[in-house]
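User: I'm curious what two different proteins look like when written out as structure tokens. Can you demonstrate?

Assistant: Sure. I'll show them one after the other, since each token string lines up with its own sequence. Here's the first protein:
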Amino acid sequence: MSRQSSRYFAVRGKAFSYLVSKRALAVTFLLLFITIAVIILSTGIGSVYIPPGEVVRSVFGFGDDSSEMIVRSLRLPRILMAVLVGASLAVAGAILQGVVRNSLASPDTVGMTGGGTLGAVSFFFFFSDKITIHLLPVFAIAGAFIATFVVYALSWKGDGVTPLRLVLIGIGFAAAMSSISYMMLISGPVVLANQSLTFMTGSIYGVSWEKSVTPLLPWFIVLLPLIIVYSRHVNIQELGEEVARSVGSAVQRQRFLLLLLSVALGGAAVAFGGAIGFIGLMAPHMARKLVGPAFGALVPVSALIGALVLLLSDLAGRTLFAPLDIPAGVFTACIGAPFFVYLLYRSRNR
């Protein structure tokens, strides 16, 4: 018993408690260190190379004027946007996979990404010349919420929502919304089609502190701790509805609240980063390989892996084909599509 307890740290609060393994804690801090290192290196890489030491000094206001302008005004908002969007999509995917109890579940397969994209495309085509562009995130988040809850309502049968129905209806509904988005894209003006296509591909090009980072940051700061605290219910959900009910869990209410938190975080990420696919699918699987299925550790590790994936994808997009700036969503799709096929192959007999 003492040997078992020596492998865990107890984290307790008034409303929650966790047992976190020392291995998971070590992995989390290692990934945090790697993420910070990649942030510093990525901020320095570009048409003008800035050494890591100068990057750190410029962030804190002690670099030379030109380096501070490049780092703080041009590159750092984009880097932090990649961290926030990647981490948000990964956490949303982890919660969805736990609630739905399906390894193929992600923001892409339950209609969240498709709804956010359709909301943004609708804004471009119907309202961009009538109201301010600052309302684009509102349309994207609203689209993600509406799509997810339509899927949730259509999946309700008898006394609740079954995971299989949720995924199947979500995939079908996402395909329908994608078709509508593309129909609007090819039937509208070229300028609006270009804006929509960039959003649908998924890109964090041209972000700024005022229009992107600052509006997304409150969603991340508020929702991520709530999800970490509430994610202990996912561990019970993964045991199955009968087991969860037998231990006094309010399955449908907790499933709805977890979906609400997931959609809010994922919808905000789609609103500001566009339809960046597959991060919500890949990151939770990678995290499980490193720290196991317990959500107390899985959520923060998924967030760090998602941030790293999008950071590296964006770095590749803006450096490998310079002076062209390839959307980060192209690179996440290049990695995620084969990964999705692998998951399908692995689960073919289940």
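Here's a second, unrelated protein for contrast:
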Amino acid sequence: MKRELLDNGNIWQKSDGRWIGMVRYKDEYGVTKRKSFSSKKKKTLQAKMTEYVANFQDQVANSDESRKPLKEGMKNWLRVYKYPEVERTTYDRYECTAEHQIYPYIGKKPVGDITPADIKKLLTKHMNAGYAFTTSKKAYSLLKMYFKQLYQEGAIPNNPMAMIDMTKKDNYLAAQNKESKPQCDLVVVFTDEELEKIKAEAFKRFANGKPH
């Protein structure tokens, strides 16, 4: 939940002549809180409160994930959330996928403005550009993780990935005029050198003559 100002402040004067001010706001947990100010002069108090309100609004704007460009938001998400929880090779793959298959297409667009149509267009461009199915699917999976977390944390009102499915592999390859062959139809041919290595491994024995 985002922090929110509930008013621009109220001012009153105490019996001893001092001026008191108070601004009400909600914190990131939705709890209503108050910020109090005091001064001997009303003008000084008003200046303090005006500065506080302006700074508060700037902080809210800077922390609003929905208004950040996707490239900035996703880079921060990868560093903060993914770097600590995945293997380094996985993290490097995430960064590479984002850099080459996501940012060039929607990296400059504000996160909150991205629609399901934008995602479908991105995946279609992958297909038309000749990207391998697995390459495009990695981008799809990364976007799905990213937007799911933003939605769960309340940073965006809607998840654009909720209604998007990855194109079926056969259809993806057909659009590229490629054929998806079952694994049983593929024939692997080893070189003579590879066959010698296989035989060497197959006939290895322990020192007592027992086969591995």
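A detail about the second structure: Strands lie at 4-5, 10-13, 19-26, 32-39.
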